[in-house]
Design goal:
Blueprint (H helix, E strand, L loop, with lengths): L5 H9 L1 H24 L4 H18 L10
């Protein structure tokens, strides 16, 4: 596994492409929350899909570079 520096991580997080990607991801989370709020209880498999989808995107958004950096 290749390691990156905190500076490289910071540069990547500030890149306009990265910001656009995260913006789209947050929109998808909001869409999933809307769908889940309107259909909760109708289909347990679908509920679980959207719950997992939201959790995965939140995990991505909260990811920290500390586990990857090579100081």
């Amino acid at each position: 596994m290749s390691f990156i520096t905190k500076t490289e991580w910071g540069d990547w997080k500030q890149d306009k492409v990265t910001k656009a990607f995260y913006g789209a991801a947050f929109e998808r989370v909001e869409d999933a929350k809307d769908i889940l709020s309107m259909s909760a209880g109708l289909d347990q498999d679908e509920n679980n899909f959207y719950r997992g989808f939201i959790a995965a995107y939140r995990e991505m958004a909260e990811f920290k570079v500390d586990d990857l950096v090579d100081d």
